[in-house]
Amino acid sequence: MADDIEDQFDDDNHEAETETYSSDRKKHYFIRELKMMMYGFGDEENPYQESVELLEDLVIHFVQDMTIKIMELSKQNKVQIEDLMYLLRKDPRKYARAKDLLIMNEELKKARKAFDEAAKY
Question: Where is there biased composition of kind Acidic residues (predicted)?
């Protein structure tokens, strides 16, 4: 009788875990990009799925933490570039990379604008 009760609880636990796992199933936003980055940094062309998922979890947590910190700093309840740069100021590598990406973004905007204007004529 006790074994039947334990089996019933084990089945209930297993179903609850399965439901939780499937409801917590997240979208994989960066899998393709992370695989390419990992390969570019010397990993296998098809890295272990667990490694990619772990790296994605780290990226997502980093973005969430930075967003929370930005929102705490922000006076307008908006994520602003200036606030991000302020948070990155103590990490020279991240700050320099963010600055490079912002400069590249501006250059791309100018190039697109010039291309659109040239296409009109």
Answer: 1-14
- Residue 59, classified by CB atoms within 10 Å of its CB into exposed (0-12), middle (13-18) or buried (19+), is middle
> What CATH number labels 2-78?
1.10.20.10
- What is d(CA 24, CA 121) in angstroms, rounded to the nearest whole number? 53
Spatial CA neighbour of 34 closest among 15, 54, 14: 54
**What digits encode the pLDDT tens for the residues 15-52?**
443 333 333 456 788 999 999 999 999 999 999 999 99
Residue for token pair 């602003």: 80
Residues 85, 91: Cα–Cα separation, whole Å:
10
- Quick check: 62 pLDDT over 80? yes
Distance CA 50, CA 57 (A): 10
Residue extents of the structural domains in the chain: 2-78, 89-121
